[in-house]
């Protein structure tokens, strides 16, 4: 990819600086300081691509004729736009130390500080681990000691903590009067071997190893994010999560959760019987040592550490999660007793939210914590985290979950926020998605699968009715259909459909959604009902098993239940296809559940508006408020297509289309189109535009239409018991 104009300017400035660095100041034709100022300003704005960074690293690590002020300015503004390569780190480490060909100690300190700043962007952090002995040997250089101690604290693992290093560090600390940097590094060593390093050695004032420059780090993150977005660099994404999380600058919320620290590990001679998490560097290391990995001191670190999360997923431990639950209980009790503020509790909830989002599970022992939490919670505070946590509830009896978890949660939330019905519906939709994933992962779903899912759907039926009445908007209808589409994916799954019974939405909800003002929602509803049709047919074709295994079969649905569903199909077909809207004359038809006096009043009103209209035909493809535009537009497209072929069309259809108007159109020199072909063209056009639901429902309901559109004879007008 060709460099952007800004990158070309940086390259030109770097070439000027490199050229000037090779000449003594008196041999230069111009002053280099303005060029360096322009370069540092440009790198702050855009960052450095790998080639540009390599050239500047050469300028800093190899003795040149540039003055110390210019070199320091360049070192302070080395903002890499991408991840930093292993080669760059090796060259920086190689320039450390004493000697005529080494960089000055000031520049070495600046480069060590830079390594700390960009540690999280290293392409291969293990390179610093491999150079540990080189870095450790330079601790006796006072000018480099603060930066070296900080960098060593970042990269130290148990394998680095050797007896000779402990002794060397203790001796150096005594000689330097307990230098705070060395005491801080000793404390890191003590985390790994507390029984070796005695307390007196680390009681002095120690360096906290705070981040050198949070503002610099923030600017670096902005530069790398902008570069990743502009180049779509997928390698700039999140870390793989196969290393212990060691943030350079811990945010306030993260301080509430301890980092992974493993103090005790069994060792026999030079061989280890156990391995600590801190020693794992990649997926291969985790796989090779999975059986020997020791759990850390504080298991609550699992809430924020991705590697520990993976370990407890692969090696489940109820005791571990019980310790986490006890820790959460302690936080809750502190808040109740007034020993901690409410923000602390909600900060912890944010951490738990991230944990369940990463692990895709809410362990039962943590679920018990929420039982106690909802007994005390009044519904106030930052509830967003709870809406993200609860959808990961385990797959267990919904009535039990509702009694202890969801009902108290609903009551508390709706007490202060009566408009949260939509958010609750989204919560249950996400819960159903999670349960579907769990069921698909099981070889054989549990016996209570149908009962549990059915109880959830029946509860959402009532919630959806409340929502559609309180907020009859397109957004509300769309949220309701999201849930039923999630349920459709469950009951049409090739393996799960035999274990989960179809639960129909309430009739009033179906008709409210069908007569909504949104064509997309109407199509989605029709597609859902069409999928139910296939689910019913699969059940009717299933024989009862004699081995006692629970299966959804023909006996799972009584005749009245099937007739109820057939009535929904009949009413929708009457509206869309047969021009018999609201008719209840046919078997099983519900007349869209509209009272007969209301139908009589509407019929009389329509006749007073226009005698050519009838109420029964006003909801078809030609006259329906949500479909009429698409219908006449399809006729226009057919007419334009004939004109492009060279045909002569003397008259265009004015709309709306009827069977009689098509006959008149053909006789007056217009498009020759039959009534059946017109309606099939409309359905095909809707499907091509991403609205296949109406056509799918009509095809699966009417045999003649299915034969015409697909040339297949399967399917019938309604289901039989």
| Count of strand segments | 4
Quote the beta fraction.
Answer: under 5%
Largest sheet: 2 strands, antiparallel
Which stretches of 5+ consecutive residues score pLDDT under 50?
A: 1-5, 233-239, 248-253, 267-271, 712-721
**CATH structural fold name of the domain at 1-155 and 208-237:** Leucine-rich Repeat Variant
Mean pLDDT: 85
The shape is elongated
The helix content, as a percent range, equals: 55-70%
- Contiguous helical run count: 32
- As a whole number of angstroms, the C-alpha radius of gyration is 36 Å
CATH architecture classification name of the domain at 1-155 and 208-237:
Alpha Horseshoe
For the biggest β-sheet, the strand order reads 1-2
How widely separated are the two ends? 65 Å
* Helix/strand/pairing category: mainly alpha
- Regarding CATH, which class of the domain at 1-155 and 208-237? Mainly Alpha
Overview of this protein structure:
This protein is mainly alpha-helical and 721 residues long. Among the domains are: 1-155 and 208-237, Leucine-rich Repeat Variant (Alpha Horseshoe), CATH 1.25.10; 158-206; 418-557; 615-710, no CATH class. Helices cover 58% and strands 1% of the residues. It is built from 32 helices and four strands. The strands form two sheets. It has a two-stranded antiparallel sheet with strand order 1-2. Strand 3 (275-276), helix 14 and strand 4 form a beta-alpha-beta unit. The longest helix has 22 residues, at 449-470. The chain is elongated and about 105 Å long. Residues 1-5, 233-239, 248-253, 267-271 and 712-721 have low confidence and may be disordered.
């Amino acid at each position: 990819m060709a460099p952007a104009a800004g990158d070309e300017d940086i390259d030109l400035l770097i070439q000027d600086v490199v050229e000037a660095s090779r000449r003594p100041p008196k041999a230069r034709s111009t002053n280099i300081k303005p060029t360096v100022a322009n370069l540092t300003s440009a790198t702050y704005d855009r960052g450095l691509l790998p080639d540009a960074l390599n050239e500047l690293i050469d300028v800093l690590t190899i003795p040149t004729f540039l003055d110390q002020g210019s070199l320091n300015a360049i070192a302070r503004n080395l903002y890499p736009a991408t991840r930093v390569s292993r080669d760059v780190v090796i060259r920086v480490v190689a320039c450390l130390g004493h000697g005529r060909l080494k960089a000055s100690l000031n520049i070495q300190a600046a480069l060590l500080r830079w390594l700390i700043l960009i540690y999280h962007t290293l392409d291969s952090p293990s390179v610093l681990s491999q150079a540990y002995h080189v870095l450790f040997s330079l601790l006796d250089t006072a000018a480099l000691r603060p930066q070296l101690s900080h960098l060593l604290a970042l990269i130290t693992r148990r394998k680095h903590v050797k007896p000779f290093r402990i002794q060397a560090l203790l001796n150096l600390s005594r000689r330097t009067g307990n230098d705070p940097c060395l005491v801080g590094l000793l404390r890191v060593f003590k985390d790994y071997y507390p029984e070796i390093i005695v307390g007196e050695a680390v009681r002095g004032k120690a360096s906290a190893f705070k981040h050198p420059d949070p503002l610099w780090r923030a600017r670096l993150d902005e530069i790398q994010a902008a570069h990743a977005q502009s180049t779509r660099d997928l390698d700039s994404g999140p870390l793989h999560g196969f290393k212990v999380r060691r943030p350079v600058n811990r945010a306030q919320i993260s301080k509430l959760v301890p980092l992974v620290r493993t103090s005790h590990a069994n060792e026999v001679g030079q061989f280890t019987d156990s391995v600590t998490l801190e020693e794992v560097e990649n997926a291969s290391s985790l796989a090779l040592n999975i059986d020997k990995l020791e759990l850390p001191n504080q298991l609550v670190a699992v809430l924020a550490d991705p590697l520990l999360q993976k370990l407890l997923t692969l090696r489940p431990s109820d005791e571990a999660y019980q310790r986490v639950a006890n820790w959460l209980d302690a936080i809750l009790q502190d808040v109740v007793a007034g020993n901690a503020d409410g923000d602390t509790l909600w900060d912890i909830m944010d951490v738990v939210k991230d944990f369940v989002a990463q692990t895709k599970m809410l362990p039962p022992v943590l679920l018990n914590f929420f039982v106690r939490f909802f007994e005390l919670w009044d519904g106030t505070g930052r509830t967003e985290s709870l809406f993200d946590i609860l959808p990961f509830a385990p797959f267990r009896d919904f009535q039990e979950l509702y009694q202890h978890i969801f009902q108290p949660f609903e009551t508390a939330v709706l007490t202060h926020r009566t408009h949260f019905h939509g958010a609750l519906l989204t919560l249950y939709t996400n819960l159903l998605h999670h349960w579907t994933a769990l069921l698909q992962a099981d070889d054989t779903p549990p016996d209570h699968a149908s009962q549990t899912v059915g109880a959830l759907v029946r509860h959402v039926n009532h919630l959806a009715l409340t929502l559609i009445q309180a907020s009859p908007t397109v957004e509300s209808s769309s949220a309701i259909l999201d849930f039923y589409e999630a349920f459709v994916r469950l009951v049409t799954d090739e393996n799960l459909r035999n274990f989960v019974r179809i639960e129909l939405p309430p009739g009033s909800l179906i008709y409210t959604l069908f007569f909504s003002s949104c064509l997309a929602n109407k199509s989605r509803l029709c597609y859902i009902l069409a999928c139910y049709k296939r689910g019913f047919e699969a059940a009717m074709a299933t024989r009862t098993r004699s081995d006692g295994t629970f299966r959804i079969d023909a006996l799972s649905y009584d005749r009245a239940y099937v007739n109820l569903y057939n009535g929904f199909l009949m009413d929708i077909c009457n509206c869309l296809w047969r021009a018999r809207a609201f008719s209840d004359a046919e078997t099983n038809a519900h007349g869209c559940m509209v009272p007969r006096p209301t139908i009589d009043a509407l019929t009389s009103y329509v006749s007073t508006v226009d005698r050519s209209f009838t109420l029964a035909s006003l909801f078809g493809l030609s006259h329906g408020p949500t479909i009429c535009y698409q219908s006449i537009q399809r006729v226009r497209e057919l007419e334009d297509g004939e004109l492009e072929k060279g045909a002569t069309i003397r008259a265009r259809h004015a709309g709306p289309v009827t069977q009689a108007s098509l006959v008149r159109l053909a006789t007056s020199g217009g498009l020759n189109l039959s009534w059946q072909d017109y309606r099939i063209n409309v359905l095909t056009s809707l499907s091509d535009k991403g609205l296949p639901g109406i056509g799918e429902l009509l095809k699966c309901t009417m045999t003649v239409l299915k034969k015409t559109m697909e040339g297949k004879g399967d399917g019938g007008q309604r289901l039989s018991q």
